[in-house]
Amino acid sequence: ERPDLALPVGTTLDRYILHRQSAFRYATGELSQLLRDIALASKIIHREINRAGLMDITGSAGSGNIQGETQQKLDVVANIRFIRALKNGGEVCAIISEEDDDIIHTGNSQAKYVVAIDPLDGSSNIDVNVSIGTIFSIYRRVSPVGTEATEADFLQGGRQQIAAGYILYGSSTLLVFTTGSGVSGFTYDISLGEYILSHADLRQPEAGFIFSCNDGNVDDYPVSVQRYLFRCKQQRLTGRYIGSLVADFHRNLIKGGIYLYPPTLKAPAGKLRLLYECYPMAFIAEQAGGKATNGLQPILDIVPVSLHQRSVLYIGSRTMVEEV
Ligand code: P6P
């Protein structure tokens, strides 16, 4: 069932959520409120990002995260802000974040939902003023309400997501999400402090002429991927790679294209995280008519075994992903 196109572009996020609440797989007010909590946190991050250079909070915070990556100060700020918003919103009992090794228990043990989040992906781009993004994935908990959430709540598999989305902090700030019946995009109007429906029914073009990968690693890629990229170049397709998954994915969603993060010597199982990068982006891609695989199976069919496991990712226009 497609998003209710009766809602005109220009509708606010709140009105949209209320209007479509009946179409959510779980027609409860809690999911609506949870989406609002995420939107609120993203508005705060938007503000932090846009004044980062002035507030001297860019650059490395000096601390590292489970990924062994140097955390940028805005990474830390974004993580704190989303965790606080989800805790205070009351609809989430637990969170896993790229920035934290273990499950974050919110204390809302009566809440029905858990969230997997990459609070600020592509953060190495912060200091060079390139687009970055937040990626989130929402599950209905499987552990009993009133108990402490467990890993099982997060290891249900990609097809158990009840909602997923991203916020792209780019030339404008855009919230894109799905609740399982199509994909909608909302542009942040800072003068109103509101997200406004700007893309009522986002559809991934079947074919595309853009490929996104880090060509510097091409000698590490599987021969099949090297051959695919060679064919792309023979056809003079356009190479575009921002180094920010959300930005590359979104451009390919609008224009058609494929993003590839194949196995490399440095990341033999792929670099991207399954639970809070690949699953949510794959849910969105499939809901928009696109495709996402790890080269062997659909991303959403991968059986998860650990909270921060990595995956290979090929995602975007169906005909391009099928050809890899
Ligand atoms: P590389 C950012 O760190 C990220 O997770 C994605 O947003 C991005 O597409 C990729 O990694 C960039 O990785 O190895 O090409 O720098």
UniProtKB/TrEMBL annotation:
Q: Which residues bind substrate?
A: 121-124, 214, 241, 259-261, 271
Q: What NCBIfam families does the annotation carry?
A: PRK09293.1-1
Q: What is this protein called?
A: Fructose-1,6-bisphosphatase class 1
The UniProt subunit note reads as follows:
Homotetramer.
Q: Write the Enzyme Commission number(s) for this entry.
A: 3.1.3.11
- Give the record's cofactor note, including how many are bound: Binds 2 magnesium ions per subunit.
Which pathway does this polypeptide act in?
Answer: Carbohydrate biosynthesis; Calvin cycle
Where does the Fructose-1-6-bisphosphatase class I N-terminal domain lie? 12-199
Name of encoding gene: fbp
Q: What does the record give as cofactor?
A: Mg(2+)
Subcellular localization, per the record? Cytoplasm
Transmembrane helix keyword on record: no
Residue numbers binding Mg(2+) 2: 118, 121, 277
| Reaction equation(s) it catalyzes | beta-D-fructose 1,6-bisphosphate + H2O = beta-D-fructose 6-phosphate + phosphate
Q: Which SUPFAM superfamilies match?
A: Carbohydrate phosphatase
Quick one: which residues bind Mg(2+) 1? 98, 118, 120
User: Domain Fructose-1-6-bisphosphatase class 1 C-terminal, which positions?
Assistant: 205-324
Q: Which family does the UniProt entry place this protein in?
A: Belongs to the FBPase class 1 family.
What keywords sit in the KW lines? Carbohydrate metabolism, Cytoplasm, Hydrolase, Magnesium, Metal-binding
